[in-house]
Write a structure and sequence with these properties.
- This protein is mainly alpha-helical.
- The protein has a domain at 61-162.
- 82% of the residues lie in helices and 0% in strands.
- It is flat, with a radius of gyration of 27 Å.
Length: 163
């Protein structure tokens, strides 16, 4: 089978185009006009290109929200672990200094069970938890955008009355 007869899947096309762009210009970026021209030459309508660009942007936002949720969960776990280590370390020191019954084992084990559940949820989260967290972040971002837009409109109305 010759090169002209070969079929390429979308991942191969993407990798080949990216590699060709990088070798041409030293980076793998194109501006909007070049993208429109590539699409036109490939028989892709401007409407389909715009729809694909919106989908890619939405997917990128979703992936960033997933990463943010995972990072935040891991940071919260590390804060929980740090508190566990400091507090239980101080109590263990007090128990050693006062002697007697090793009462410190009870809070270490009790809190440790909670910490283990937190570790499980933070370090090995279920996919549905990640999706739920990412969607919550995206909803909050959308709400913040709308709130900001409303505040901007109200400010412009207020400014027009005061001038």
């Amino acid at each position: 089978m010759g090169t002209a007869d070969r079929r390429f899947n979308s991942e191969e096309v993407s990798a080949i185009i990216r590699r060709a762009l990088t070798s041409k210009s030293g980076h793998d970026e194109v501006d909007y006009d070049d993208l429109v021209e590539i699409a036109r030459q490939s028989g892709i309508s401007p409407g389909k290109l715009e729809a694909a660009m919106r989908e890619e942007e939405d997917l990128g936002d979703y992936e960033k929200a997933r990463e943010e949720w995972l990072r935040t969960r891991r940071q919260h776990f590390m804060e929980h672990f740090r508190a566990y280590a400091i507090v239980n370390g101080a109590m263990a020191l007090m128990n050693l200094m006062t002697g007697g019954y090793p009462w410190v084992l009870w809070p270490i084990v009790g809190w440790g069970i909670g910490l283990a559940f937190d570790a499980s949820d933070s370090l090995w989260p279920k996919e549905c938890a990640i999706e739920r967290g990412a969607k919550k972040i995206l909803r909050k971002r959308e709400k913040d955008k709308m709130t900001s837009a409303i505040k901007g409109k109200l400010k412009s109305v207020y400014d027009s009355f005061n001038s």
